[in-house]
Specification:
Length: 333
């Protein structure tokens, strides 16, 4: 059938084109035959045009689908890179879509640079504050003791007390440097499968005496059964111990830990307490190294916790802190 249609179409096309080259249509053909042949020519030519258009449309659709699949792979690659914090990629500027992706990457890069600059500014401010608070007494006491001594070496000031103060300040400075070394030298996590219920039982058991001394209570509730996380047990335990300790220092009497699996298959753990809220002005700085609102605080607990969570491809954030409760959220991906 297709062969007959094709041969008929070609014949009719030839009859249609022949007059343009000076070849007249056959005069011997009856008028009715000529009309029939003319109709066949128009019908065949229409089918040919339709066939060509269909092929062009099919080619366009296939090319578009292939391009879209490539675009989807590019977006997936970019999202994975952004989640991992890697921005060392760039697509060829050969089309508008690639240029748009590169523009998004540039925006993220600028935001990260700004964030890093702000973090360094905050860190330098805290370091300067801590070092100056320790070094200033040493300098002033040394100068005062030196000026108070006469030629025979006697001084009107209590030399022993001054030297003791200098010694204490020096030790505090050494402790500060050791704390900084601890923060910057977090060991690579040794991950294994951990049953969350067992982990929480151990953590609460370790803090049992501390909770009893403050007349406080800590509970754990799993909203999703049989939760397992792949993590370093020692490092993650330290995070929860520090969060409980911070809550008790804030005067909390009830500490609740809840865990669940969200729609993105992330294990989400919330640690809530009813202690004194974190001041609003300090909430954005609590994860900055050495920043603390406590007189005897080292200021590395939450910074260390965030660093550990990042090494576990997770996160820790302050969700809220008001007169009702303070809530920290940990996410394991």
């Amino acid at each position: 059938m297709c062969t007959i249609l094709l041969s008929t179409t070609l014949r009719n096309l030839w009859l249609l084109v022949l007059p343009t080259f000076g070849g007249p249509l056959p005069l011997m053909m009856p008028r009715a035959a000529q009309v029939a042949d003319s109709s066949i020519v128009h019908i065949g030519f229409g089918w040919l045009i339709l066939f060509i258009v269909a092929i062009l449309v099919a080619v366009w659709v296939i090319a578009t689908l292939r391009t879209r699949r490539k675009d989807i792979r590019k977006v997936a690659y970019m999202m994975d890179a952004l989640e991992d914090g890697e921005l060392n990629f760039r697509f060829q500027d050969k089309n508008k879509f690639n240029r748009t992706l590169n523009r998004i990457r540039t925006i993220f890069e600028k935001q990260r640079q700004q964030h890093e600059q702000d973090s360094w500014t905050k860190l330098i401010r805290v370091l300067t504050h801590e070092i100056m608070n320790t070094v200033s007494p040493i300098a002033s006491l040394s100068d005062a003791l030196s000026k108070s001594m006469d030629e025979t070496g006697h001084s009107e000031l209590d030399v022993k007390a001054g030297l003791d103060t200098i010694s204490d300040s020096s030790k505090n400075l050494i402790k500060f440097v050791e704390t900084y070394r601890e923060l910057s030298g977090v060991a690579r996590p040794v991950k294994k499968a951990i049953d969350l219920q067992d982990l929480m039982d151990k953590v609460i058991g370790l803090d049992k005496e501390l909770l009893a001394a403050r007349d406080a209570h800590c509970s754990y509730v799993a909203e999703t059964e049989d939760l397992i996380i792949y993590a370093d047990e020692g490092q993650i335990s330290q995070i929860f111990i520090n969060l409980i300790k911070n809550a008790l220092q804030a005067g909390a009497k009830h500490i609740s830990i809840t865990a669940m699996l969200n729609r993105e298959d992330e294990t989400v753990i919330r640690v809530a307490n009813d202690g004194e809220p974190i001041p609003v002005a300090s909430q954005e700085q609590i994860f900055v190294p050495f920043f603390t609102t406590k007189k005897e605080g080292s200021g590395i607990g939450l910074s260390l916790a965030r660093q550990i969570m990042r090494q576990h491809n997770g996160s820790i954030d302050l969700v809220k802190s008001d007169v009702n409760e303070t809530v920290f959220e940990l996410r394991f991906r």
